[in-house]
Amino acid sequence: MTIQIQNPIFVPRVLHNDFSYVNYRNYEMLNFAANYFHMSTIQIQSLLNTISSKTKYLAVDPRTPIFQFGGHSNRPTYRILRYAIPPNRTLTSQNFNGQFTTQYTNDVVVEQRQHSNNIIIPPYFYFTDDNDTWFNVNLDCANESSKIKNTGENILMFVLFDCTLLLRPQALTSVSNHLISCNVDGYYLVAADLDPLTINPTFVYGYQSLVSQLAATKRPVIVAQAGKLGLALIASGAAGYAMGFSKLDSIALNTFRQGGGGGGQANRYYFHNLLLPVYKKNSDDIAGTHAVSPTYPCNCGHCGGKLPTQIASKNRTYHYIDFRLAELTALAGLNRQQTQAHLKKLFDNAYNLSLATHQELSRQQPFSGNALPSSEFAHLGVIAQCL
Ligand SMILES: [Zn+2]
Predict the structure, then answer these.
(1) For residue 350, how far is its CA from the centre of ligand 1 (angstroms)?
(2) What's this model's pTM, rounded to 2 decimal places?
(3) Which residues have C-beta under 5 Å from ligand 1, the single-atom ion?
(4) What would the pLDDT profile of 253-276 be if each residue is shown by its tens digit?
């Protein structure tokens, strides 16, 4: 049995207060952190009761890098996990000799089996390149997992790499060759410290190469927390992309040092024809430009023609979810060439419209070009150029 993904998917990375968004629709796959199952708030209980009925595949993220960086020390829910390391201690790659690797992998798998019956994520750890001893630990844990896989379970290998690996073609090819040799059923790629808004073409070409090499195995490849680059990489064969319902567009290594899962407010509004989630305080200015009119203010059931700041936070997120899923529905049934052509046009249009919006705002008195500065949309042009 392999992971069955027919058309490209959006994989929400669910936070503990996301009950409404999980409950809102049915999903192909959800990613939910293992430690959340040990929280005891009322919010989390309704989420836990619902989550498995709302998704075909449930990926219970073991969050093992937190034990590599020590972020678990100030997070009690991590201490209850059966593979937890005591506070103020961390794992090192030297810990992973044969017997420890087998036992640790087993503990991580057993913990996940309490919550998911179809996805197994091997222990995974941050690495910089193929010479990093942590890289070998990742490969060993993946292979140990495959030995204890049950019928109906799929091994989804999480690959957490330093984003600068994307800039080094030789190291990248070596890494992907080793990943391909693992006996797993899919890949979930996370480029740590990648800033989706400042990517240059070298990053994009590197990621395209990694995704297309892995996708050639016919195993599904999910690109996580890479902003809109995740959507663009479907043109290279990715089966989908992952991020939060309203945030978590990227991932900083500090998350694993500090133990945080991503706080803050969902204070953005999604302009689907610009492919941009924009901070709420700037969104009314943008919605009022001739460039995006008549599409905004949006008339969908959640927005009801109101200006973005007049829409409740939850409705703004439902609007964002709907449009992201619609972008993927438009790719359903397209072959690789058609997908690439479609996405190139989508990103080209989004860039041109963003530029026109920026120029219109810049001409206004008083100057309001800062509502959509070029630093917020330049990456769309970079991606379009690489497609
Ligand atoms: Zn709307």
Answers:
(1) 17
(2) 0.96
(3) 298, 300, 303, 319
(4) 988 988 765 544 568 999 999 999
